[in-house]
Design goal:
By secondary structure, this protein is α/β, with parallel strands linked by helices. The chain has a single domain, classed as Flavodoxin domain (Rossmann fold). The protein has six helices and five strands; from the N terminus they run E-H-E-H-H-E-H-E-H-E-H. A five-stranded parallel beta sheet has the order 2-1-3-4-5, with helices on both faces. Helix 2 crosses helix 3. The longest helix has 19 residues. It starts with a strand and ends in a 5-residue tail after the last helix.
């Protein structure tokens, strides 16, 4: 299954990350069909932020060790915790079922959008992606493709390279979740605001080259079976 998640607050016509994820998803559906495709738009259907009931349930689960999702209901205490679990389980199930996860990640204030962070916070429920018998990650075979769209230039050797908190964050998060390093693909399109920011004048050729490279990479990554 392909789990396609967009987090840009911009409409498709204005969003580079949405255009690039759509490119990947379109190529993927041509090969695999639409039945095994799931799209979640975090801008139009935001994931609710965590509440104290979520953290209380999470701590109780952690004390029990590796508890698979099927056994979490037995540990729920009260309607508030039940509501949190009802909001969480569908997201966990989607991620557990996905062979490929496609993320559209625009850079907001040097990092990921709050909408994506809310999804990350909720889906990362204790033990949800751990094999209770072996302790290994259930996501070690999952492929993650993250499209990072940046208004300026943050690549290696640029003046703002140290301001890129997207790349290390996503690498650390999915690595900690158990995704194999060679299954994590981070694709960046830079200088996407070159048409509106005067300070980027003269860099149009670099912006075009970055976008073209990202488009080519997305088409290439959509080819393998998933």
């Amino acid at each position: 299954m392909l789990l396609h998640i967009d987090s840009s607050a911009d409409a498709t016509a204005d969003s580079v990350s949405r255009r690039l994820t759509a490119r990947f998803a379109g190529a993927w559906r041509e090969r695999h069909g639409a039945a095994r495709y799931r799209h979640r738009d975090l801008a139009t259907a935001p994931v609710p932020p965590l509440t104290p009931a979520y953290t209380a349930l999470g701590r109780r689960v952690e004390r029990e060790g590796f508890v698979p999702p099927a056994k979490v209901p037995a540990l729920i205490d009260g309607p508030a915790e039940q509501r949190e679990w009802d909001l969480t389980l569908p997201l966990v199930d989607e991620l557990r079922c996905a062979r490929t996860v496609l993320l559209g990640v625009p850079m907001y204030n040097f990092s990921v959008p709050a909408s994506l962070k809310a999804w990350i916070d909720r889906v990362t429920f204790p033990g949800a992606f751990t094999d209770p018998d072996t302790g290994e990650s259930l996501l070690r075979g999952t492929r993650v493709v993250a499209v990072m769209a940046r208004g300026g230039g943050y690549g290696p050797g640029t003046p703002r390279e140290a301001f890129d908190f997207q790349t290390p964050y996503l690498r650390a998060y999915f690595g900690n979740l158990g995704v194999a390093p060679d299954h994590l693909h981070l694709v960046a399109a830079e200088l996407t605001r070159v048409d509106v920011l005067p300070r980027l004048a003269g860099l149009e050729h670099l912006a075009a080259a970055s976008l073209a490279a990202a488009e080519e990479r997305m088409t290439e990554l959509a080819r393998p079976a998933a």
